[in-house]
Amino acid sequence: MGQTSIKNRLILCFLILILTSLLVVAGVNYFISDYWKAQAISVAIALGVGVFLGRAFSISFARRLQALVSLAQNVSLGDLTQEISVRSRDEMRDLEEAFKKMVYDLRQSISQVKMASLEVSKTADKLFGQVKKLRTKSEYITDTARIIAKGSEEQSAIARKTAMSLEKGLITMEKTANKALATASIADSAEMKTTEGELKSQSSINDLRSVLTQLDESSQLVYKLGHKLEKIDQVTDVITEITRKTDLLSLNASIEASKAGEYGKGFALVAEEIRSLAESSKDSAGEIRTMIVEILEDSTTVLESVKLGQQGIENGRKEIETIGFLMQEVLASVKQIVTEIREFSAAVEHQVGEVRQISEQFEDLSKLANENFISTHKTLLATEEQMETMQDMFALAESLVAFYRKLDETQKQFRLSLE
Amino acid sequence: MELLLFTAKNEVMGIESQFVLEILEDKKVFPVPLSPPPLAGHLYHRGDIFTVIDMGILAGKGSARLTGSRRIILLKWQDKNLSLMPEAIIGLACVKAEPPPASVVWKERPVRILAPEEIWNQFDIVSNFVVSAGLRLTA
Q: Model-level pTM?
C-alpha cells in the first residue's frame, strides 16, 4: 500500500470541495434561477461541505494527535508499556512510527540502563566491600607503616649509637694497641732486668757460699775456743778441789793449833792465813768458773747463732737457688709473655683494622637506616594519603551506592511490561 | 775458849774445839734402819765408829745433809765418839767465858753452844747399842 501525505489529502479535500462547489453551483443554478440566491445557496452548501470535510479531517487528525499526546504523557509518566497502532499512511504514520520507535528505544534503553544499573549495583556492592576491605587493609598498612617507621627510626638511632660505640671501642682498642706496644717494650726491659736478676742471683749464691765457708771456719774456731774453755773449766775444778782441800786442811790445822794452846797460836795464825788464801782462791776459782760458764754460755749462744746463721744462710742459699730457678722460669715466662704480647699487639692492630672496617660499614648502615627511615616516613605519608584516598573511594563507593539507589528509584518509575 | 762455829739451817752453833777430833769431807755414812731421824747413821774412821748426827734435823728444821757442804765434824772425848753433820763450817772463834755459857753473840749473831755430852745422852741408847755393836765387830 502506497503512502499518502496530509498535503495530498488536503489537496484532495480541496479538489473535492471545489468539485462539490462546482456541482452544487451547477445544481443550484439548474434548480434556482435567481442568481444571488443561487449564489448564496451555493456558498452555503459549499461552506457546509467545506466545514464537514474540514471537521472530518481535523477530527481524524486531532484524534490521532490526541492519542499520541496521551502516549507521550504516559511515557512521560514512565509507562513504556504503551503500544501504538499504526494505521494511517500519512505523515502522522511517520510520527507514530517515530513515537513507537522512541518508546521502543526508550524501553530498550531503560532495560539496558536497568541491567547496567543492576551491574552497577553489584559492582558498587563489590566495590564497596572491596573498598571497605581495602580501607581496613590500608589502615593495617598505615599502622604497620607507622610501626615500621618507628622501628626504622629506632633502628637508625641504634645504628647511630652502635656506630658511636664502635668508634669509642675503636679508640679504646687503639689505646689498647698502644698500651700493648708499651707493655711489649716494658716486657722487653723486664726480660733484660730478669736476665740481670738471674745473673745477680747466681752471684749472690756464690757470695753466700763463700760466707757459708767463712761461717764454717768461724764456728770451728768457736768450737775450739769452747774446748779450750772446757779444759780451763776442768783446771778450775782442780783448783777448786785443791782450795777446798786446803781449806779443810787449814781448818783441821787451826783446830789442832787451838788444842796446842799458847804453843799453837802461831801455827793457828798460819793456818788461818792459809785458810783465807784458800777461801780467796776458792772465790777466784768460782769467779773464773762463773766467767768460763758465761763465756761457755756466750760461745754456745754464738755457736747457736752461727748454726742459725748457717741454717739461715743455707736456707737463703736454697731460697736464692730457688729464686734463681724461678728467675729462669720467670725469664722463660717473660720471653713467652713478650712473644704473646707482640702477637696480642698484632692481633689488636688487625682487630682495630677490622673494627674500623666494621665501623665504616656501620656508618653506611646508619646512613642506609636513615634513608630507610626517610623512605619509611615517606611511605607512611603516602600510606596516609592512600588512606585518605581510600576514604574518598569509600565515600565515592557510598555515593555510587546512593546513586544506584536513586537510579533504581528512577527506574522503578518506568514500566517496561504489563506485569 | 776456842769454838768451832758452824751453821745448821741458818742457825749458828758452836762447839768447843777441844772436843773436835778432825773435820772430814765426803765421808761415807752408813744409815741405821729404825733409828731416830736426827741419827743420820755411822761412819768409820781410822778404826773408830762415829755416830753421825744431822744438825739440821736436830735443830728441828730439816736435814742438813741435803743442802750442806758434805763436811762432818768428828768429836772425841772420854772415849766417846760422835760426829756432827752441819750445813756449813764457819771456822774457829775465840770466846772469853769460863765455864762456857749456853749461848754467845758472834758478829751480832746468836751462837748456840753445844755440849757433846748432852747430845750423847740424848741418843744414849742407840749410840751405846751401835757403839757396842761396833766394838764387838771390831773386836
A: 0.45
